[in-house]
Amino acid sequence: MPDDCIFCKIINRELDAEIVYEDEHAVAFKDINPAAPVHILVVPRKHIPTLLDLKKEDEGLVGHLHTVANEVARAFNVDKKGFRVVINCGADAGQIVFHLHLHLLGGRPLLQTMAKGRGV
Ligand code: DGP
């Protein structure tokens, strides 16, 4: 784990966050700067900087992150009306935290395109 990774610190309880789910492989917590009424970040415990750093051996883990998003979406009652899952990768996508994460967004109509005007 790099010393300066905010999400590793949250996972290791060195930094506070509102954790809403955790298991052996993943942690989910509320985004500090929510772009929607429901804005949860689903992160692997394993430090993987970006989508580009995924290895073949991570395929199961990435699938698991989506299953966690499914569970969290149901827990936060956005499953019926719908929600969006986004992964930003690199500068043009506006990635600011270099620890792989899924944004789970819902609780309002997300009618914009995939463009990032806080649409994440
Ligand atoms: P991005 O790297 O652009 O895909 O998004 C990173 C997200 O992480 C951004 O929406 C804000 C959130 N974030 C950054 N620092 C913290 C933090 O210390 N705590 C929490 N809960 N969220 C954070």
How would you describe this protein?
The protein is of the alpha+beta class and 120 residues long. 19% of the residues lie in helices and 21% in strands. The chain has helices at 6-11, 59-75; strands spanning 19-22, 26-30, 38-44, 83-86, 102-106. Strands 1-2-3-5-4 form a five-stranded antiparallel sheet, with helices on one face. β1 and β2 form a beta hairpin. The longest helix is centred in the middle third of the chain and has 17 residues, at 59-75. The radius of gyration is 14 Å and the shape is globular. It binds 2'-deoxyguanosine-5'-monophosphate (DGP). 2'-deoxyguanosine-5'-monophosphate (DGP) binds at residues 6, 17, 29-33, 41, 88, 94-97, 120.
Estimate the strand proportion: 15-25%
Query: Helix share of residues?
Result: 10-25%
H and E string: HEEEHEE
Helix-and-strand structural type: alpha+beta
Number of E-type strands: 5
Q: What is the approximate shape?
A: globular
Total number of helices: 2
Determine the N-to-C terminus distance: 25 Å
Bound molecules: 2'-deoxyguanosine-5'-monophosphate
